[in-house]
Give the backbone structure.
Amino acid sequence: MRTLIAASTRAYTGKSGVVLALSAVLAERGLDVGYFKPYGAMPVHEGETVSDEDALYINGTLSRPSVTSDVCPIVRTRSFVERVLRGEVGDLSTVIAQAFERVSAGRDVVLVEGSADWAQGIAVGVSAAEVARLLDAPALLVDRPQGFDIPEAVLAQAALLGDRLCGVVLNGVQEPQLPFTRDRLVPFLEGRSIAVHGVIPHDPALSAVTVAQIVDALSGTVLAAEDHLGDPVESFMVGAMGKDKALRFFRRKARKAVVTGGDRADVQLAALETDTRCVVLTGNMPPSAAVLAQAEESGVPMILVDTDTLAAVEALEGLFGRTRIHDAAKAARLRAKLEQHVDLDRLLAACGIH
Protein backbone atom coordinates (compact mmCIF):
# COMPACT_ATOMS: atom_id res chain seq x y z
CA MET A 1 0.00 0.00 0.00
CA ARG A 2 1.28 3.47 -0.95
CA THR A 3 0.41 6.78 0.66
CA LEU A 4 0.56 10.30 -0.75
CA ILE A 5 -0.03 13.44 1.31
CA ALA A 6 -1.30 16.57 -0.46
CA ALA A 7 0.01 19.63 1.39
CA SER A 8 -0.69 23.31 0.73
CA THR A 9 1.13 26.60 1.07
CA ARG A 10 -2.02 28.54 2.01
CA ALA A 11 -5.78 28.24 2.07
CA TYR A 12 -7.67 28.01 -1.21
CA THR A 13 -4.88 26.70 -3.43
CA GLY A 14 -7.21 24.05 -4.85
CA LYS A 15 -5.64 21.19 -2.89
CA SER A 16 -8.96 19.39 -2.38
CA GLY A 17 -9.69 19.60 -6.08
CA VAL A 18 -6.29 18.13 -6.96
CA VAL A 19 -6.90 15.26 -4.53
CA LEU A 20 -10.37 14.62 -5.94
CA ALA A 21 -9.10 14.60 -9.53
CA LEU A 22 -6.11 12.41 -8.67
CA SER A 23 -8.34 9.87 -6.92
CA ALA A 24 -10.42 9.53 -10.10
CA VAL A 25 -7.30 9.10 -12.26
CA LEU A 26 -5.88 6.38 -9.98
CA ALA A 27 -9.20 4.57 -9.79
CA GLU A 28 -9.42 4.46 -13.58
CA ARG A 29 -5.93 2.95 -13.65
CA GLY A 30 -7.28 0.05 -11.61
CA LEU A 31 -6.16 1.02 -8.11
CA ASP A 32 -8.31 0.72 -4.98
CA VAL A 33 -8.08 4.29 -3.70
CA GLY A 34 -8.74 5.41 -0.14
CA TYR A 35 -9.00 8.95 1.20
CA PHE A 36 -7.99 10.35 4.60
CA LYS A 37 -8.08 13.84 6.09
CA PRO A 38 -6.66 13.77 9.61
CA TYR A 39 -7.66 17.33 10.51
CA GLY A 40 -10.77 19.04 9.16
CA ALA A 41 -11.72 22.68 9.57
CA MET A 42 -15.16 22.79 7.92
CA PRO A 43 -17.47 20.94 10.32
CA VAL A 44 -20.54 19.23 8.94
CA HIS A 45 -22.88 16.69 10.52
CA GLU A 46 -23.83 13.34 9.03
CA GLY A 47 -26.25 11.88 11.50
CA GLU A 48 -24.50 11.95 14.86
CA THR A 49 -21.03 12.02 13.30
CA VAL A 50 -19.14 15.28 12.85
CA SER A 51 -16.92 15.32 9.78
CA ASP A 52 -15.32 17.78 7.38
CA GLU A 53 -17.33 19.11 4.43
CA ASP A 54 -14.76 18.31 1.72
CA ALA A 55 -13.75 15.02 3.35
CA LEU A 56 -17.34 13.84 3.42
CA TYR A 57 -17.79 14.64 -0.27
CA ILE A 58 -14.52 13.16 -1.55
CA ASN A 59 -14.95 9.95 0.46
CA GLY A 60 -18.44 9.62 -1.00
CA THR A 61 -17.09 9.68 -4.56
CA LEU A 62 -14.94 6.58 -4.01
CA SER A 63 -16.05 3.17 -5.21
CA ARG A 64 -15.41 1.86 -1.70
CA PRO A 65 -15.97 4.68 0.80
CA SER A 66 -14.51 4.39 4.28
CA VAL A 67 -16.41 4.81 7.55
CA THR A 68 -17.13 8.53 7.95
CA SER A 69 -15.74 8.78 11.48
CA ASP A 70 -12.42 7.29 10.32
CA VAL A 71 -11.98 9.48 7.25
CA CYS A 72 -11.63 12.68 9.29
CA PRO A 73 -10.96 11.74 12.93
CA ILE A 74 -10.25 15.29 14.15
CA VAL A 75 -12.55 18.19 13.29
CA ARG A 76 -11.99 21.76 14.45
CA THR A 77 -15.35 22.57 15.97
CA ARG A 78 -15.97 25.35 18.48
CA SER A 79 -15.94 22.85 21.33
CA PHE A 80 -12.65 21.38 20.08
CA VAL A 81 -11.06 24.84 20.05
CA GLU A 82 -12.23 25.46 23.61
CA ARG A 83 -10.79 22.12 24.76
CA VAL A 84 -7.45 22.89 23.14
CA LEU A 85 -7.27 26.31 24.79
CA ARG A 86 -8.08 24.77 28.18
CA GLY A 87 -5.24 22.29 27.74
CA GLU A 88 -7.56 19.29 27.60
CA VAL A 89 -6.36 17.91 24.26
CA GLY A 90 -3.32 15.64 24.48
CA ASP A 91 -1.28 13.74 21.92
CA LEU A 92 -3.46 12.97 18.88
CA SER A 93 -0.94 10.88 16.97
CA THR A 94 -2.46 7.60 18.19
CA VAL A 95 -5.94 8.70 17.12
CA ILE A 96 -4.65 9.58 13.65
CA ALA A 97 -2.58 6.41 13.27
CA GLN A 98 -5.43 4.11 14.28
CA ALA A 99 -7.97 5.82 12.00
CA PHE A 100 -5.49 5.72 9.11
CA GLU A 101 -4.88 2.02 9.66
CA ARG A 102 -8.61 1.33 9.31
CA VAL A 103 -8.97 3.52 6.21
CA SER A 104 -5.92 2.03 4.49
CA ALA A 105 -6.80 -1.63 5.12
CA GLY A 106 -6.86 -3.47 1.78
CA ARG A 107 -6.15 -0.36 -0.29
CA ASP A 108 -3.61 0.02 -3.07
CA VAL A 109 -3.11 3.70 -2.35
CA VAL A 110 -4.44 6.27 0.14
CA LEU A 111 -4.52 9.97 -0.65
CA VAL A 112 -4.13 12.02 2.53
CA GLU A 113 -5.29 15.63 2.46
CA GLY A 114 -3.12 17.78 4.69
CA SER A 115 -4.08 20.99 6.47
CA ALA A 116 -4.81 24.25 4.68
CA ASP A 117 -1.36 25.73 5.26
CA TRP A 118 1.91 24.95 7.04
CA ALA A 119 0.63 26.19 10.41
CA GLN A 120 -2.89 24.77 10.60
CA GLY A 121 -3.05 21.97 13.16
CA ILE A 122 0.37 22.66 14.64
CA ALA A 123 -1.10 23.36 18.10
CA VAL A 124 -2.21 19.74 18.35
CA GLY A 125 0.58 18.11 16.37
CA VAL A 126 -1.33 17.52 13.13
CA SER A 127 0.30 19.96 10.70
CA ALA A 128 1.03 18.57 7.24
CA ALA A 129 4.73 18.08 8.00
CA GLU A 130 3.95 16.28 11.28
CA VAL A 131 1.41 13.99 9.60
CA ALA A 132 3.93 13.20 6.84
CA ARG A 133 6.42 12.11 9.48
CA LEU A 134 3.81 10.15 11.42
CA LEU A 135 2.61 8.22 8.37
CA ASP A 136 6.10 8.06 6.82
CA ALA A 137 4.71 9.25 3.50
CA PRO A 138 5.82 11.48 0.61
CA ALA A 139 4.10 14.83 0.16
CA LEU A 140 2.92 16.71 -2.92
CA LEU A 141 2.74 20.48 -2.42
CA VAL A 142 -0.05 22.48 -4.08
CA ASP A 143 0.55 26.22 -4.46
CA ARG A 144 -1.37 29.06 -6.09
CA PRO A 145 1.22 31.66 -7.14
CA GLN A 146 0.50 35.18 -5.92
CA GLY A 147 1.47 37.89 -8.39
CA PHE A 148 4.94 38.22 -9.85
CA ASP A 149 7.00 37.37 -6.81
CA ILE A 150 9.51 34.94 -5.34
CA PRO A 151 7.73 31.67 -4.35
CA GLU A 152 8.84 31.92 -0.74
CA ALA A 153 5.80 30.06 0.58
CA VAL A 154 6.86 27.04 -1.46
CA LEU A 155 10.43 27.28 -0.18
CA ALA A 156 9.21 27.53 3.43
CA GLN A 157 6.91 24.51 3.16
CA ALA A 158 9.60 22.57 1.30
CA ALA A 159 11.99 23.20 4.18
CA LEU A 160 9.42 21.84 6.65
CA LEU A 161 8.72 18.73 4.57
CA GLY A 162 12.38 18.05 3.78
CA ASP A 163 13.13 14.86 1.87
CA ARG A 164 9.46 13.84 2.00
CA LEU A 165 8.58 16.49 -0.60
CA CYS A 166 8.07 14.75 -3.94
CA GLY A 167 7.22 17.85 -5.92
CA VAL A 168 4.89 20.79 -6.50
CA VAL A 169 1.84 21.53 -8.61
CA LEU A 170 1.26 25.23 -9.34
CA ASN A 171 -2.49 25.59 -9.55
CA GLY A 172 -4.98 28.27 -10.58
CA VAL A 173 -2.44 30.47 -12.35
CA GLN A 174 -4.05 33.57 -13.89
CA GLU A 175 -3.48 33.97 -17.64
CA PRO A 176 -1.25 37.08 -17.36
CA GLN A 177 0.96 35.15 -14.91
CA LEU A 178 1.44 32.04 -17.04
CA PRO A 179 4.59 33.12 -18.97
CA PHE A 180 6.24 34.35 -15.76
CA THR A 181 5.29 31.14 -13.94
CA ARG A 182 6.52 28.80 -16.66
CA ASP A 183 9.64 30.73 -17.64
CA ARG A 184 10.79 32.03 -14.27
CA LEU A 185 9.19 30.24 -11.31
CA VAL A 186 9.46 26.69 -12.64
CA PRO A 187 13.21 26.91 -13.46
CA PHE A 188 13.80 28.68 -10.14
CA LEU A 189 12.19 25.86 -8.15
CA GLU A 190 13.65 23.06 -10.26
CA GLY A 191 17.07 24.64 -9.73
CA ARG A 192 16.56 24.15 -6.00
CA SER A 193 15.70 20.46 -6.47
CA ILE A 194 11.94 21.07 -6.12
CA ALA A 195 10.25 19.21 -8.98
CA VAL A 196 7.37 21.09 -10.58
CA HIS A 197 5.01 18.48 -12.02
CA GLY A 198 2.58 20.89 -13.62
CA VAL A 199 1.22 24.40 -14.05
CA ILE A 200 -2.59 24.46 -14.10
CA PRO A 201 -4.16 27.66 -15.52
CA HIS A 202 -6.99 29.41 -13.71
CA ASP A 203 -10.44 28.27 -14.82
CA PRO A 204 -13.23 30.75 -13.96
CA ALA A 205 -15.84 28.00 -14.25
CA LEU A 206 -14.29 26.13 -11.32
CA SER A 207 -14.65 29.07 -8.94
CA ALA A 208 -18.14 29.92 -10.15
CA VAL A 209 -20.99 30.08 -7.65
CA THR A 210 -24.71 30.18 -8.19
CA VAL A 211 -26.92 33.21 -7.70
CA ALA A 212 -28.58 31.33 -4.84
CA GLN A 213 -25.21 31.00 -3.07
CA ILE A 214 -24.71 34.76 -3.38
CA VAL A 215 -28.15 35.32 -1.86
CA ASP A 216 -27.29 33.03 1.06
CA ALA A 217 -23.85 34.59 1.62
CA LEU A 218 -25.30 38.10 1.77
CA SER A 219 -28.58 37.17 3.51
CA GLY A 220 -30.27 38.99 0.67
CA THR A 221 -33.83 39.24 -0.58
CA VAL A 222 -34.59 38.39 -4.21
CA LEU A 223 -36.78 41.03 -5.87
CA ALA A 224 -36.91 39.74 -9.47
CA ALA A 225 -36.22 36.72 -11.69
CA GLU A 226 -36.35 34.13 -8.90
CA ASP A 227 -36.36 31.36 -11.51
CA HIS A 228 -32.71 32.19 -12.33
CA LEU A 229 -31.20 31.52 -8.91
CA GLY A 230 -29.38 28.46 -10.25
CA ASP A 231 -27.44 30.44 -12.87
CA PRO A 232 -23.63 30.28 -12.48
CA VAL A 233 -21.69 33.45 -11.63
CA GLU A 234 -17.95 33.52 -12.38
CA SER A 235 -16.93 36.91 -10.96
CA PHE A 236 -18.25 40.17 -9.60
CA MET A 237 -17.76 43.87 -10.36
CA VAL A 238 -18.54 47.02 -8.39
CA GLY A 239 -20.46 49.78 -10.13
CA ALA A 240 -19.94 53.31 -8.79
CA MET A 241 -19.59 55.37 -11.95
CA GLY A 242 -21.87 56.99 -14.55
CA LYS A 243 -23.87 54.93 -17.02
CA ASP A 244 -21.58 55.44 -20.03
CA LYS A 245 -18.44 54.43 -18.13
CA ALA A 246 -20.36 51.62 -16.45
CA LEU A 247 -21.33 50.13 -19.80
CA ARG A 248 -17.72 50.05 -20.99
CA PHE A 249 -16.62 48.66 -17.62
CA PHE A 250 -19.27 45.94 -17.39
CA ARG A 251 -18.59 44.71 -20.94
CA ARG A 252 -15.15 43.53 -19.82
CA LYS A 253 -16.55 40.51 -18.01
CA ALA A 254 -19.25 37.97 -18.76
CA ARG A 255 -21.35 35.87 -16.38
CA LYS A 256 -20.79 38.32 -13.51
CA ALA A 257 -22.56 39.80 -10.51
CA VAL A 258 -22.70 43.58 -10.20
CA VAL A 259 -22.65 45.27 -6.80
CA THR A 260 -24.05 48.79 -6.65
CA GLY A 261 -26.14 51.10 -4.51
CA GLY A 262 -29.86 50.57 -4.51
CA ASP A 263 -30.35 54.17 -5.59
CA ARG A 264 -28.11 53.90 -8.69
CA ALA A 265 -30.71 53.20 -11.37
CA ASP A 266 -28.31 54.28 -14.13
CA VAL A 267 -25.68 51.73 -13.07
CA GLN A 268 -28.31 49.02 -12.60
CA LEU A 269 -29.67 49.55 -16.12
CA ALA A 270 -26.13 49.51 -17.55
CA ALA A 271 -25.52 46.17 -15.83
CA LEU A 272 -28.71 44.76 -17.32
CA GLU A 273 -27.47 45.68 -20.82
CA THR A 274 -24.42 43.43 -20.44
CA ASP A 275 -23.86 39.75 -19.58
CA THR A 276 -24.84 40.04 -15.91
CA ARG A 277 -26.18 37.13 -13.87
CA CYS A 278 -27.43 39.15 -10.88
CA VAL A 279 -27.33 42.66 -9.39
CA VAL A 280 -26.65 43.16 -5.68
CA LEU A 281 -28.34 46.29 -4.34
CA THR A 282 -26.66 47.60 -1.18
CA GLY A 283 -27.91 49.91 1.52
CA ASN A 284 -31.33 48.23 1.75
CA MET A 285 -32.64 50.58 -0.96
CA PRO A 286 -34.98 48.85 -3.43
CA PRO A 287 -34.77 49.80 -7.12
CA SER A 288 -37.40 51.58 -9.16
CA ALA A 289 -40.32 49.74 -10.74
CA ALA A 290 -38.80 50.35 -14.19
CA VAL A 291 -35.52 48.65 -13.19
CA LEU A 292 -37.39 45.71 -11.65
CA ALA A 293 -39.45 45.29 -14.80
CA GLN A 294 -36.31 45.30 -16.97
CA ALA A 295 -34.58 42.79 -14.66
CA GLU A 296 -37.57 40.45 -14.79
CA GLU A 297 -37.67 40.66 -18.58
CA SER A 298 -33.91 40.05 -18.83
CA GLY A 299 -33.95 37.17 -16.33
CA VAL A 300 -31.47 38.87 -13.99
CA PRO A 301 -32.21 38.49 -10.25
CA MET A 302 -32.07 41.70 -8.20
CA ILE A 303 -30.78 41.00 -4.68
CA LEU A 304 -31.49 43.52 -1.95
CA VAL A 305 -29.07 43.53 1.02
CA ASP A 306 -28.97 45.70 4.12
CA THR A 307 -25.16 46.00 4.20
CA ASP A 308 -23.05 48.70 2.58
CA THR A 309 -21.06 48.10 -0.59
CA LEU A 310 -17.77 47.45 1.22
CA ALA A 311 -19.27 44.74 3.43
CA ALA A 312 -20.96 43.12 0.42
CA VAL A 313 -17.68 43.11 -1.51
CA GLU A 314 -15.81 41.51 1.41
CA ALA A 315 -18.43 38.76 1.64
CA LEU A 316 -18.24 38.10 -2.10
CA GLU A 317 -14.43 37.99 -2.03
CA GLY A 318 -14.65 35.18 0.50
CA LEU A 319 -17.29 33.41 -1.55
CA PHE A 320 -15.39 33.56 -4.86
CA GLY A 321 -12.01 32.87 -3.26
CA ARG A 322 -12.65 29.15 -2.96
CA THR A 323 -13.19 26.47 -5.59
CA ARG A 324 -16.24 24.39 -4.71
CA ILE A 325 -15.68 20.79 -5.69
CA HIS A 326 -19.05 19.32 -4.63
CA ASP A 327 -20.34 19.09 -8.17
CA ALA A 328 -19.95 16.26 -10.67
CA ALA A 329 -19.43 18.61 -13.63
CA LYS A 330 -16.72 20.51 -11.77
CA ALA A 331 -15.09 17.26 -10.69
CA ALA A 332 -14.88 16.15 -14.32
CA ARG A 333 -13.46 19.52 -15.32
CA LEU A 334 -10.87 19.33 -12.54
CA ARG A 335 -9.76 15.91 -13.71
CA ALA A 336 -9.44 17.09 -17.32
CA LYS A 337 -7.31 20.02 -16.16
CA LEU A 338 -5.08 17.72 -14.11
CA GLU A 339 -4.55 15.29 -16.99
CA GLN A 340 -3.89 18.10 -19.47
CA HIS A 341 -1.46 20.20 -17.46
CA VAL A 342 0.27 17.82 -15.01
CA ASP A 343 2.87 15.16 -15.85
CA LEU A 344 1.07 12.45 -13.91
CA ASP A 345 3.53 9.68 -14.69
CA ARG A 346 6.41 11.76 -13.36
CA LEU A 347 4.41 12.81 -10.30
CA LEU A 348 3.32 9.28 -9.41
CA ALA A 349 6.81 7.87 -9.95
CA ALA A 350 8.26 10.54 -7.67
CA CYS A 351 5.74 9.51 -4.99
CA GLY A 352 6.40 5.79 -5.43
CA ILE A 353 2.95 5.01 -6.87
CA HIS A 354 3.00 2.56 -9.79
